[in-house]
Amino acid sequence: MFVDTARIFVKSGDGGDGAISFRREKYVPLGGPDGGDGGNGGDVILVSDENSTTLMDFTYRKKYKADNGENGAGSKCFGRKGNDLYIKVPMGTVVKDVNTDKIMADLSHPGDKYIVCKGGKGGKGNVRFTTPTRQAPEFAEPGMPGEERYILLELKVLADVGLIGFPNVGKSTLLSVVTKATPKIANYHFTTLNPNLGVVNIPGINSFVIADIPGIIEGASSGVGLGIKFLRHIERTRLLIHVVDISQIEGRDAFSDFVKINEELKNYDVKLWNRPQIIAANKADMLYDDKIFDDFQKKVSELGYGKVFKISAATKRGVDDLMKEVARRLSEIPITDMEIDEADKFVPEDKKFTYTIRKEENTYIVEGSFVDRLLASVNVNDYNELRYFYKVLRNKGVMEDLIKMGIKDGDTIKLNDFQFEYLL
């Protein structure tokens, strides 16, 4: 089963908490602090795997979480770092952040790695908070939470050449005769429902990967048929073989079909429309009048396209010459990574602890992640820790902001469930 998109939830590990611990030693206050730091949480890392060709595994498992870091311990023992979680994805996978729809990474080379969620930092143990005037701190830092997000995985087939054209023009037959691929072939439209890949190995030319891209019809760029689902797979190709049915046995006009397919490419992405094309007029063995081919070639040349190859995939007539021309053109086209506009790139936000202050009558309410972390770090019922609490409020500018807002002597300051009276 070919699956080329998947939406999954990923979460890195939380950092371990720092330890509050004291060693038992004579003449050392409270035995001396020796609480170690917590370990960092594990990262979630995507890795491109050249042995994988589909995102099918992600249809069964939707949530992925790395290990948390271990808590610190006494005797200055640091907590163990959480194990990183490695998730294998097929080569050619583009990773997007669901919330912003920005591109996080393009994993198109063997072994490419990307940290999609970074583990939370471990908290500091109480040994880190000793000062000449605070020799026995009874508080420690909690670990930082890990990151979490929904991501979208989009597989874009890695091929040098893409076969495009209306259904039933012989793309799959052409693929089968130039490679060892065995696509389903039948005389009805939409026989091919998934992209098929094969390697062209013809004596005298460099090998290359060719893909049969199904379902592109008129209106595909706006969601008609299957085309919108598979147009993305052309994005990585360096060259397109545009296959038309020159026999016209189905009553279709080859030139009209050619124009319509190119219009769909242009509507989807102008870069695809500008991609080099080689035109293959297929089913020439069933052509009853050579004038049809001559007229087609003349109209195509007037649009600025080069030679049209007259072929029959069924009888292999002209196929070798077509493939040799494809190999020659590929040798002139450099291999480049997928271009990602700066506006489409995902930029991770720095994890900052913030707060907001609002006033309700004579009460100033301080809220936010900064408040949550500070209250988790200290015991406000302990005098020494309370002094540290006030010091942090001053150093982080909270008290200065309160003064700017007009706080007066006797007003109440509330941080979550903890409140106290402001004194000048």
TrEMBL record:
Residues 1-158 form the Obg domain. Pfam families: DUF1967, GTP1_OBG, MMR_HSR1. GTP binds at residues 165-172, 190-194, 212-215, 282-285, 312-314. One of its GO terms (molecular function) is hydrolase activity. The keyword Protease does not apply. Its EC number is 3.6.5.-. The keyword Endoplasmic reticulum does not apply. Its cofactor is Mg(2+). Residues 159-331 form the OBG-type G domain. It is found in: Cytoplasm. Residues 345-424 form the OCT domain. Mg(2+) binds at residues 172, 192. An essential GTPase which binds GTP, GDP and possibly (p)ppGpp with moderate affinity, with high nucleotide exchange rates and a fairly low GTP hydrolysis rate. Plays a role in control of the cell cycle, stress response, ribosome biogenesis and in those bacteria that undergo differentiation, in morphogenesis control. PANTHER family: DEVELOPMENTALLY REGULATED GTP-BINDING PROTEIN-RELATED, MITOCHONDRIAL RIBOSOME-ASSOCIATED GTPASE 2. Belongs to the TRAFAC class OBG-HflX-like GTPase superfamily. OBG GTPase family. Monomer. This is GTPase Obg. It comes from Clostridium algifaecis.
